[in-house]
Amino acid sequence: MNDNEISRRRLLGTVGAAGVTGLALGAAGGAAGYAAAASGPAAALATVGSTTEPFHGEHQPGITTPMQSHGHLAAFDLAQGAGRREATALMRRWSATAARLMAGEPTDDDTGVALDAGPSSLTVTFGFGRTFFDRTGLTAQRPVQLDPLPAFSSDRLDPRRSEGDLWVQIGANDGLVAFHALRALQKAAGSAARTRWQMTGFNRSPGVTARPMTSRNLMGQVDGTRNPKPSDADFDSRVFVPATGSGAGSAAQPAWMAGGSYAVVRRIRMLLDDWDELSLKDQERVIGRRKSDGAPLTGGGEAAELDLDRVGPDGSLVIPADAHARISAPEQNAGAAMLRRPFSYHDGMAADGTPDAGLLFVCWQADPLRGFVPVQRKLDRGDALSRFVRHETSGLFAVPGGAAEDGYVGRRLLEP
Ligand SMILES: C=CC1=C(C)c2cc3[nH]c(cc4nc(cc5[nH]c(cc1n2)c(C)c5CCC(=O)O)C(CCC(=O)O)=C4C)c(C)c3C=C
Ligand SMILES: [Fe+2]
């Protein structure tokens, strides 16, 4: 056990008491951002800090894990001259680092940033981009599902912040824990890979609403209502590559992708100043749902079915023909569906004086050609929301199944 480990464990034991002290100080003396270390017996960590997610398993973490309040998305390119050997060593190092951090343990060269925090539902998810396979001499193993996404008319993509050989998604219910993991993985990349782009996002923190509810995005809409649910009979076949290698109607998948999934990542800027000028009624017609509770404009609660045929007294459709919820519905897209698991982002003001804010849209599917692509094609042709959003970056990554206890992510590809 090294010094860091000793102090981390000791601090984990005292954090509850320190937290209580901090609360007392806050109540009595204002917000100094300071809490004296307590010397008394430790209290248990709050649930938000103590919750762990498993790193090993059939699927990687961070796909069906409840959305966390802090996230980082980062892409890496392999260094000049680095090939399969270096990539294999890198995935071993990254997997070992992720497993330790997700268990709440420090790394060997820990920076100390998260020393006094619990694992806080940290998840680390790894993916391979299309270019990874040529760089490592594994072109024959590249899934056709990684073929480039089609160009959409509304794309305004920045290639420097798109794609990449490797992709890492980090989520945690604490900002320092999430940053700590990102930094540890960047250090563990060593000379094998360098960061290509990096984005930071957030969601609502656990426990801030009176009851658990679907999250809101920065336009204020309830967003995520009609996501596939793990309890749905077809959830696994929609989201994960089956062990047999391909799903119904999908092109064959390589065996190494069994239990894996494909992540489509889009940084979608929201034109919030324009959006805010719309009346509430018009905002609701853009989506086809009420803003207050996410219920369809045709009535019922949030979970009610959309009545896409209902017309109002004036004979026009209650859920307009170009409403986002109508156009993106699986019933309108031959059953195409995806698991949306985004983070919001806010990177200050853009040069034009408008907020640089929006959605780090991440969606998961067993095959992008049966998930993101057909839906985005349809949205691209006539979504009322498109006047208020701009797709600025894009990435498509093959996310292999989870690592075995004695293995690492990507082993079945790199050491078949
Ligand atoms: C290509 C896929 C999609 C993109 C890109 C996208 C962008 C986007 N969406 C919202 C807000 C909402 N989307 C909602 C539903 C919804 N969106 C998609 C797909 C994309 N959205 C799907 C498949 C669905 C579900 C449709 C269904 O199953 O019926 C909703 C409604 C509530 C919900 O079901 O989640 C909102 C609100 C924004 C703001 C945005 C880009 C910034
Ligand atoms: Fe949407």
Please, could you describe this protein's structure?
The chain is α+β, with helices and mostly antiparallel strands and 416 residues long. The chain has one domain (45-414). The chain has eleven helices and nine strands. Strand 7 (343-349) and strand 8 form a beta hairpin. Helix 3 runs antiparallel to helix 5 (175-189). The radius of gyration is 22 Å and the shape is globular. 41% of the residues are buried. The ligand C=CC1=C(C)c2cc3[nH]c(cc4nc(cc5[nH]c(cc1n2)c(C)c5CCC(=O)O)C(CCC(=O)O)=C4C)c(C)c3C=C binds at residues 217, 219, 221, 223-226, 268, 270, 287, 289, 294, 324-325, 328-330, 358-359, 361, 372, 375-376, 379, 389. Residues 324, 328 line the site of fe (ii) ion.
What does the largest sheet look like?
A: 9 strands, antiparallel
**Radius of gyration using CA atoms only:** 22 Å
Q: How many helical elements?
A: 11
Structurally, the number of domains stands at 1
Amount of beta strand: 15-25%
User: How widely separated are the two ends?
Assistant: 34 Å
Count of extended strands: 9
The kinds of small molecule bound in this structure are: ligand L6N33NVT, fe (ii) ion
User: In terms of per-residue confidence, which ranges show pLDDT below 50 for 5 or more consecutive residues?
Assistant: 1-30
Broad shape: globular
* SS-derived structural category: alpha+beta
Order of helices and strands: HHEHEHEHEHEHHHEEEHEH
Q: Quick check: average pLDDT? A: 91
Subcellular location: Cell envelope
GO molecular function: ferrochelatase activity; heme binding; metal ion binding; peroxidase activity
GO biological process, one term: iron import into cell
Function: Involved in the recovery of exogenous heme iron. Extracts iron from heme while preserving the protoporphyrin ring intact.
